[in-house]
Amino acid sequence: MIKQFVKYIIIGTVIFTLSTCITRNDIYNLSQIGSDPSLLLASLVDNNTVELQFSESIDQGSSETISNYVIEDSMSNPLNIISATRQADTSKVHLDIAGIFSKALYNVTVNTIVEDLNSNQLDPAANTASFAGLGTVITSVVATSHASVRVSFSDDVEQSSAEDPDHYSISGLSITDAVQDLVDFTIVDLTTTPHEDIDYTLTVTGIIDDDSKTFCGDVDPYIKNVCSFSNT
């Protein structure tokens, strides 16, 4: 704690006259008077609660108004928010939904009328955030040869679905086989028709919520690969 006598504090063009000692927290709070709050991140607390972290303390009334929030899944389907509760750490708000966050990815948008303790409204350039749900996503796709691709998921996937080639599609290539790794059940190896030296997009359906990821095609080892995501 800093204790020192000051007569004036100048912030921008506003002069505050003080006749008492101030602390480090007093200086911080005064510095926040002219700044707009922002949404820093969102993260899952449990299967039906997401925590929003703001850049500073948020007004209780506006932060606990349910209509000031929208949560959507990756297909833009809105969720039913049933409560909004500011926490003891007043820069955090918990949103509860009806049901659970069963899909892989969600987006939350906060109405810019949400205010900080000095009536500054939320920065419209920083009022959205994404967070992972309970679902499984593709974590990586890598060409392991000129006719094979390794797909890695965030969680174990069910074998019969994972080994069905019809659950995978790559524009410009045919997928002839899919084999789950014998040890690591998050990995599936695909056999494809020969690649060209270009970028491809793999789309997975049926096994998980629809998800896609781009990778670079591999080519015969005797051909120089100049693809932007080169694996050789």
Please provide a brief summary of the model:
This protein has 232 residues and is mainly beta. The chain is built from 3 helices and 18 strands. The strands form 6 sheets. It has a 4-stranded antiparallel sheet, with no helix packed on it. A 4-stranded antiparallel sheet has the order 12-13-16-15, with no helix packed on it. It has a 3-stranded antiparallel sheet with strand order 7-10-11, with no helix packed on it.
Number of strands: 18
Mean pLDDT: 85
- Helix and strand content put the structural class at mainly beta
Beta fraction: 35-45%
Q: What order do the helices and strands follow?
A: EEEEHEEHEEEEEEEHEEEEE
- What's the CATH architecture name of the largest domain? Sandwich
What percent of the residues sit in helical stretches (DSSP H or I)?
under 10%
Side-by-side strand order of the widest sheet: 5-6-9-8
If helices are DSSP runs of H or I spanning 4 or more residues, what is the number of helices?
A: 3
- Poorly predicted sequence stretches spanning 5 or more consecutive residues: 1-28, 222-226, 228-232
